[in-house]
Amino acid sequence: MKTDSSTDVLVIGGGVSGMSVAYGLARAGQRVIVLDQGDDVFRATRGNFGLVWVQGKGVAKPPYARWSVTSAALWPEFAAELTRQSGVEVELSQVGGMRLSFSDRELTRWAADMDRIHDSLGSDYPYERLSAADVRARIPEVGPDVVGAIFSPLDGHVSPLRLLRALVQAFANLGGKLSTGENVEAIDHRGGEFHVRTQKGRYAASRIVLAAGLGNRTLAPMVGLHAPVEPVRGQILVTERMQPFLRYPTLHVRQTGEGVIQIGDSKEDVGFNDATTVKELGRIARNAERYFPLLKTVNVIRAWGALRVMTPDGYPIYDVSQECPGAYLVTCHSGITLAAHHAGTISDWICGAAAPADVQTFRANRFHVQNSTN
Ligand SMILES: Cc1cc2nc3c(=O)[nH]c(=O)nc-3n(C[C@H](O)[C@H](O)[C@H](O)COP(=O)(O)OP(=O)(O)OC[C@H]3O[C@@H](n4cnc5c(N)ncnc54)[C@H](O)[C@@H]3O)c2cc1C
Question: pLDDT tens-digit profile of 203-215?
Fold first, then answer.
């Protein structure tokens, strides 16, 4: 059958993971085509909270803690480079982030988790346990119910939509091709090449990267890979613009560069359903008012639901197929935080560099091991 386009690498999925990898590959001189289904499907990239977040991640898995910390450390240079390459400012602010608590017991538990991560990583993991007065000194608008916070100077936030725009533009400026409205229906591996069929055309390449979010579940077996990803819904509220008052992003409330307040801390197991519900939005709004009472009188202008791309243990999957050499899988639930690594370490690996030891621990065979011992 006739092939419409042939290239070095095909990337399936034009969300933040696919575009980060594609950008890194194009920067390394590869000819890359990204095939993306489009805006009317589930895309965590367009519905997320925009945190570049480190604290609390990897308590039970030091490689994940290290992977998150090192990606966050790469972010300032990554953001500056993207802006140079694309002309798009991604609104990165990394002045530290807070996880606010209404309970001393909870705070003690979180601090113990931070100590565990600190012990496994050594001096690369600074954090402070803040009292209510410490929090108030940094954010005077905080409510009386907040008893303290964990502050990590490594945390920050970015505009996820600007990030996607910057990646798409920088990729195009490097000669990359993004084709949208392309639902990948079949991948065939023959003669050392991957042949991909969409309803719009046929493509061939010697390497293929599956970065299709929840779509990876169906695509992975076509090239001998395994992607047991499931949707986990999050709902987010956005208010009208306010005077700047929240210098530090918190895990549940952040103020964007444009001044709006984003509120969101929901996690729901409801399958492929990205609707919003009054009950859940009401819950997150009430919590936000307890964190910051001045939000009581602010108008909400938008709300949405979006589906996280979640693996059974919550860690990313980076894998390469034994059955079809040249096929890679990249999927994770913290694609904003990890974008700097995806554009660097992971694209270098796909270009032929040895995978760092930490990356080896994120292969999908960890799920087979768990199954066989259960
Ligand atoms: C509510 C919420 C809050 C979040 N907050 C944060 C946060 O603060 N910080 C953080 O780091 N992460 C956060 N995340 C997670 C982050 O958004 C995701 O990890 C990231 O968007 C995953 O990107 P992705 O490109 O892998 O997947 P997606 O964004 O889902 O993109 C997958 C792409 O693949 C395409 N695709 C699927 N199937 C096919 C197919 N068959 N053919 C062609 N294309 C296909 C789709 O069109 C889509 O564009 C949050 C997620 C949610 C839902």
Answer: 999 999 999 999 9
